Amino acid sequence: MSRLVRPLRIVIADDSALIRRLLSDGLSARGFDVVGEAANGDEALALCQRERPDVLSLDLAMPGLDGIGVLRNLRDTGSPVKVVVVSAFSPAHGARAVDALSEGAFELVPKPVVGQPLDPFLTELADKLRFAAVSRTAVVTPNGNAAQLRRPATAVPARGVRRTVVIASSTGGPRALATLLPSLPSPLGGGTLVVQHMPEGFTASLASRLDRSSDLTVREARTGDALEPSTVLLAPGGSHVRFSPDGRARLSDEPAVGGLRPRADLSIGDAAGVFGPRLLLVVLTGMGKDGLEGAREVKRRGGRVLVEAESTCTVYGMPRAVAEAGLADAVLPLDALAPAIAAEAGA
Length: 347
Prior knowledge:
Blueprint: E1 9-13, H1 17-29, E2 33-38, H2 41-51, E3 55-58, H3 67-76, E4 82-87, H4 91-102, E5 107-110, H5 118-134, E6 164-169, H6 173-180, E7 192-196, H7 203-213, E8 217-220, E9 231-234, E10 240-243, E11 249-252, H8 264-275, E12 279-283, H9 292-300, E13 304-308, H10 318-324, E14 330-332, H11 334-345
Parallel strand pairs: 1-2, 1-3, 3-4, 4-5, 6-7, 6-12, 7-9, 8-9, 12-13, 13-14
Antiparallel strand pairs: 10-11
Helix pairs in contact: 2-3, 4-7, 8-9
């Protein structure tokens, strides 16, 4: 007899009664148990304390205690409630959304604008709420056992070869990048591109935050950019980053691949074709398998691949796909990646 699985318990916090109703109806129809709705941060905290939900869907702009205040309170009190931020778009909200990730939010979902269909938005939100509910530091494989992967050999010094670096990340990536990039030296190799899965409107704020804390200059990529040892280019949300044969970046509005734009596989494949054995791929925390096909191309062209270890990933999806395919030259926890990248790339 199959064991019944209880529905995930959700609290919705948003100052708009219309949004609360849309989310409540849409998530209930997708199998969630909506145990409370809050119009402000204080109500959200009270509901989280009383109902002990699995996940909180959190707006950032609310009267009184705002979303950032809620996140800080949950963090400071040691609450186990996971948080998915549902935010509107604007430069100001983009900055606040990046702040929310640094304060412990699991993931971001953009609110739909007028005229957009609700179904894709609700499906994305439901998926991220489910991932948030089951996420933890030690991720468990589908058969219920902790993944036991062979740890490959450690990083190989570049020995005079200056490798170009491409970093791919998704869920948990902004926090991982906030640890990794400030630990990297400047100059670094032949230059660095970061492909972080984020919606359009948020990556400029992420680049600014990372730039302030890093020796490397961090900014969004633009068409015509050449990779430089002192600079990290960040793929803008809503655009793929492709590389021309001369190694210059080109922003592309090609359709999303697997729901992702930017898609890391596209950037990695192009970079592998241009830089060959002078390319270092680093795959950090994230859902899904973006980076896997790119890693295959990197190895085929003689490049090197590092992935983040399960022990430090928010979601051990993208790195696991690469490691289990036997494509990783080293599997390293986040705190060991910076010196390995510096050795591999040539600082």
